[in-house]
Every structure is written in C-alpha cells, then in structure tokens.
C-alpha cells in the first residue's frame, strides 16, 4: 500500500465511525467514544497527508500490512452491538498502526 | 471503360483525402478537430481543478469550526491554519502550473492547426514568459512545499520552453514533434503529481464533509431534545438534506478522474503522432479525444454542481 492508499483507508474508517456515531442516540456513551477516536484519526490523516515516506522499506511495508489487517477486524465487528469491545480494541490497534506509520515519516525527517 | 471513368471520378476526392492523411508528416490537417477537443477538455480539467482546490481549504476550515461548535469548544486561529491541507503558496504554484499546462495544450492545438503563425508566435512568447516567472516562484518556495514539485516540474518546463522557442520562431513542425516526442513523460509526471495532490485534498475534503454530515444530525438531535417547535426541526431537516446532497455528489467531483483522462489523452496524442497517421489512426485518435471531452465534461459538471451546493 502506498501513502495514498493508507490515507484512503483511514478515510474509510473515519466515514464508518461517523455513520455509526450518527446512528446512535446523543446520550449513548459509545457515541462520545467513537467521536473521540474519529477526531484523533482525522488529525492523524491530515498529518499523514503532509508527510513524506520512503515506501520501499521493510518497516513501511510491515506497518501497512498491520494497518490493513486491523481494518478488516474493524469492518467485521463495528456493525455488531455485541462486538463493541472487540470493535474498540481493533480501533485502538488501528490508531497504534497509524502512529507507527507517522513515526516512520518522523524518523526520516 | 465508362464505368471505370465514373468510378475514378467518384473516388477522386476520397483518394485525395486518403493521400492527404497518409502524408500526415508534411501536413497537420488530420489533427485539427481532435486537437481542438484536446485543448477544450484540458481547459475543462484545469478549470475544474482550480475551482476544486480553492474549495478544499474552506471545507476543512468549516469542518474544524463545526467540530468545535458541536462540543462548545474554543476555536483557535492556529488550529484553523493547521487544518489547511495545502498552503496558499503551494496552491498558487499548482494553479499556475495548471495554467501553463492549459496554455501548453492551447499551443499544441494552434501548432496542429497551423493556420495563424503570427498568433502562434505571440502565444509562444506569452507561454515562455509565464513559464519563466513560474520557475522563479517555484525556486522561492519553502523546501517543504516546493522540493518535490520543483523536481517534477523542471524537466517538463525545459521541454515546454523548447517547444515555445520553436513555435516563436515559427518552426511549427519541429515544435510539434518536440512536444509530442519529448514532452510525453515529463508532462505526464506533472499531471500525476498534481493529480496525487488533488487526490489527497479530495480525501481530506471527504473527511471534512463526513464530519459536517454528522454535525448536522447532531444539531437536529440537540434541537429535538430541547423540545424546539416543528418549524425549527423542519429547518434542521432541510439542512440535513442539503448536506446529504453534497455528500452524495462528492465521489463524482473527485478531480482525479479528470487527470486520469488528461494523462490518457496525452498518451493518445503521442500514439497518434508516432503512427502512420492513416484513416484508421485518425479515427481512433478522434474517438479517444471525444472520450476525453466526455470524461472532462462529466467531472467539470460534478465540480460545478458541488460548488453550487456548497454555496447554498
């Protein structure tokens, strides 16, 4: 996955979170949690857009593989109310994978 | 014998046209309509990108303000600045580069038509001068905004400059050959770079529109819970409808499609120039340029529609 695909992937998750949040009642505690994660990812996406990567390194490849794997788990669990815990755990993993990517660009700078 | 004469007479104009097409190396007659189409569609793509790129930062800004308002948070000017996807200097350079590509497309069209050498010469001078100014601006850009763009734009700039010089000297055929044979890759790299920048801008814009969509529903919910009357709730409902109209039209307005079409059109132009330029080659080229016009028009309409919806 190149940087552009990573940015698109993060965007897909953000849209998914907005759809989920916008479907919950305003006082649902999950809504606040989802919005917080969404805002965090939005900031990260903007950071990523402005960064330059060496997409040929093994570290970059490993980070994007992790990002893709966590995305799959999020998409499978987010619609299911009974899998809320799994879903939030996967989202935490997603943020950590995005941070890993940003760390790679910061190392280059 | 009579039949033969009639047949020869009947086919005489067709034969002439056939030989005119075959002798495309010496004549530029076959290019006329498709190059005009190329020129027109290039302008549509660059104009759509211009409209689009100028809107992206506004969308980002609006989304940040909505986000803060939704949680009654403080609005910070520094945060508004950092929410911008592309700096104003970088926007300016890309817009000017797009303008050069548009002028370059126009010059190609004029070279191919080759019916007004004086006009070609004066437009070539204009292109060369604006190119020189743009290169000066790119040199002044910060490393962050300009380094990558400079490295990609420089080779294209050299070729475009050379084409402009030949055109200025009215060496029309040489200028056309230079543009077609050497200009392909450097011009395509500039197209791809701006396309990728715009794709990033589109993604940021999609993110912002998704947020605006959510905030409009939040605002309705807040009014509903406060027990506002139906008039107020209907107003909120109308706002949600407008926001959803913009959201629905967003994928069609991605300028990437226009740039993909522009790149394909450049390849088609080169393929035709390298071909034997017979009737089939010309027909193929014409169809490709018509396809470019159709794709560019589609994106242009979608961007304009989005702009109108955003302004409502």
Low-confidence blocks of residues of chain B:
1-27
Give the helices and strands of chain A as they follow along the chain.
HHHH
Please give the alpha-carbon distance between the first and last residues of chain B.
74 Å
Report the C-alpha radius of gyration of chain B, rounded: 25 Å
Summarize this, please?
The complex is a heterodimer of chains A (109) and B (312). Chain A has helices at 3-21, 29-50, 58-77, 84-108. Chain A has 109 residues and is mainly α.
Question: If you had to describe this structure to a student in words, what would you say it looks like?
Answer:
The complex is a heterodimer of chains A (109) and B (312). By secondary structure, chain A is an all-alpha fold. Chain A has one domain. Chain A is 79% helix and 0% strand. Chain A is built from four helices and no strands. In chain A, helix 1 (3-21) packs antiparallel against helix 2, helix 2 runs parallel beside helix 4 (84-108) and helix 3 packs antiparallel against helix 4. The model of chain A has no long low-confidence stretch (mean pLDDT 87). In chain B, helix 2 (32-70) packs antiparallel against helix 4 (88-113), helix 2 packs parallel to helix 8 and helix 4 packs parallel to helix 6 (143-168). Chain B has 312 residues and is an all-alpha fold. The longest helix of chain B has 42 residues, at 184-225. Chain B has one domain (31-311). Chain B is elongated, with a radius of gyration of 25 Å. The chains are: A mainly alpha (109), B mainly alpha (312).
Task: Provide key terms for this protein.
heterodimer, A: 109 residues, mainly alpha, 0% strand, B: 312 residues, 86% helix
């Amino acid at each position: 996955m190149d940087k552009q695909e990573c940015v698109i992937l993060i965007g897909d998750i953000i849209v998914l979170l907005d759809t989920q949040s916008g479907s919950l009642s305003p006082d649902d505690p999950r809504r606040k949690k989802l919005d917080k994660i969404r805002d965090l990812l939005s900031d990260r996406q903007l950071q990523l857009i402005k960064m330059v990567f060496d997409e040929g390194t093994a570290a970059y490849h490993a980070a994007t593989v992790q990002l893709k794997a966590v995305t799959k788990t999020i998409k499978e669990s987010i619609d299911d109310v009974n899998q809320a815990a799994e879903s939030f755990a996967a989202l935490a993993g997603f943020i950590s994978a995005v941070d890993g990517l940003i760390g790679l660009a910061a190392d280059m700078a | 014998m009579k039949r033969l004469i009639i047949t020869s007479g009947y086919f005489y104009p067709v034969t002439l046209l056939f030989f005119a097409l075959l002798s495309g190396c010496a004549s530029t007659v076959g290019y006329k309509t498709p190059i005009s189409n190329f020129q027109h569609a290039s302008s549509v793509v660059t104009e759509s990108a211009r409209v689009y790129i100028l809107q992206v930062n506004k969308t980002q800004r609006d989304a940040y303000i909505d986000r803060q308002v939704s949680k009654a948070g403080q609005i910070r000017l520094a945060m508004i600045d950092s929410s911008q996807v592309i700096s104003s200097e970088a926007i300016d350079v890309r817009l000017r580069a797009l303008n050069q590509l548009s002028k370059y497309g126009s010059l190609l069209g004029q070279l191919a038509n080759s019916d007004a050498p004086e006009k070609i010469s004066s437009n070539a001078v204009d292109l060369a001068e604006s190119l020189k100014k743009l290169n000066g601006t790119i040199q002044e850009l910060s490393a962050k905004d300009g380094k990558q763009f400079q490295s990609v734009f420089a080779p294209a700039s050299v070729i475009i400059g050379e084409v402009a010089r030949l055109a200025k000297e009215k060496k029309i055929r040489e200028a056309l050959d230079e543009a077609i044979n050497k200009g392909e890759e450097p011009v395509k790299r500039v197209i791809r770079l701006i396309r990728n920048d715009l794709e990033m801008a589109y993604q940021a814009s999609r993110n912002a529109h998704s947020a605006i969509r959510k905030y409009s529903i939040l605002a309705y919910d807040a009014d509903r819970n406060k027990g506002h009357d139906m008039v107020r709730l209907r107003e909120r409902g109308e706002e949600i409808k407008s926001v959803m109209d913009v959201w629905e039209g967003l994928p069609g307005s991605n300028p990437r499609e226009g740039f993909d079409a522009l790149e394909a059109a450049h390849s088609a132009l080169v393929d035709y120039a390298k071909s034997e330029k017979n009737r089939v080659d010309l027909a193929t080229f014409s169809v490709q340029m018509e396809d470019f016009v159709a794709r560019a028009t589609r994106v242009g309409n979608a961007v304009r529609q989005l702009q109108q919806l955003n302004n409502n």
